[in-house]
TrEMBL record, chains A, B:
Matches recorded under InterPro entries: Homeodomain-like_sf (IPR009057), HTH-type_TetR-like_transc_reg (IPR050109), HTH_TetR (IPR001647)
Domain of life (superkingdom): Bacteria
Stored Pfam families: TetR_N
Protein name as annotated: Transcriptional regulator, TetR family
Source organism (scientific name): Micromonospora chaiyaphumensis
Record-annotated HTH tetR-type domain positions: 1-50
Swiss-Prot/TrEMBL keywords: DNA-binding
Length: 189, 189
């Protein structure tokens, strides 16, 4: 993943990775016969580790209404960190690399589902309530967009201001009977 | 741009582009001395053309409250189309290519500003009103995130459902005195 962040997909050769990891080419090829297998295993491993870290960091957040702000900040950090950058290198490379694409498509679906489930858990919300699922999805898609906007230049000032507003909006969407009006649907209250 | 979409950044050589464009290498190098100059000019040209097309398509939308839905759909199509894919190839490649990065950073800022201005114009909203600027920004960042989610697999079903909800939310945010509650700020009404 460090190689992907520093050199990009095309600069990440298995030889460079083996040298950096301090393992022989033989050992590397034994465990990961292809570059696609190697990077897919790395994304899987680091995504799982990141999920554990996010749970630990979220557990340290104070309870109360400001907890949501802290969770959004943790997620925003994940979407602007090195793992996101490395994953984006792979996602873009996979468009034009059939072997990588075949390995990544099922992984993308799984990571997407787990990220969604983790966000629901960290926010402590009930997804069966109308609107909650969509609000969580929009938050993650928004954060992915903000991650891309941060690729070439430091977008943190704009991002902080935008997320400040989004947190209030998300809080309203997640609070029962406090969401925005839904034209065309009858509201019980 | 077609080369970028089909072959990615590393597969897009100036030789391949010259052959496809039907121009001599001499003529190409005369106008675009480097690959970075060539692709930057292409992004600039196509972004301007896309803005003209978006204005034309938006002008054909019916007036009334459903106009916002049509504008969001037009923008979503732009963020999942070939120009977005080509731009993303460049943005990611520029992370690890200093020459491309130097060329793209000012372009990214300009395209970002123009996309924002165009969205304000197409939605017919007044950006001096509180919350409007942030709502437009969030819409564009959300659409960028949805564009990335569509890279490797067709995400249109999920995107359509998510945007259905987002359109209602955006309409509420853009309608005076109908936005979500803003804790901690005094409201005049």
């Amino acid at each position: 993943m460090e190689c992907l962040v520093e050199h990009g997909w095309s600069g990440t050769t298995t030889t460079v990775v083996a040298a950096r990891a301090g393992v022989s080419r033989g050992a590397q090829l034994h465990h990961y016969p292809t570059k696609a297998a190697l990077v897919t295993a790395a994304v899987t491993h680091l995504t799982e580790r990141r999920a554990v870290e996010l749970r630990t960091e979220a557990a340290a957040l104070p309870a109360g209404p400001r907890r949501l702000d802290g969770v959004v900040d943790l997620l925003a950090a994940a979407f602007t960190g090195p793992l996101f950058v490395a994953a984006l290198e792979l996602w873009v490379a996979a468009r034009t690399d059939a072997e990588l694409r075949d390995a990544l498509v099922p992984l993308e679906a799984r990571v997407g589902r787990e990220m969604h489930r983790l966000t629901v858990e960290l926010l402590g919300v009930d997804e069966r309530r109308p609107g909650v699922r969509e609000a969580v999805q929009a938050t993650l898609d928004l954060l992915r967009g903000l991650g891309v906007a941060n690729l070439l230049s430091d977008d943190s000032t704009r991002r902080t201001a935008l997320l400040h507003t989004w947190k209030r909006q998300l809080a309203a969407l997640l609070t029962p009977d406090a969401g925005p009006p839904t034209p065309g649907s009858a509201r019980p209250h």
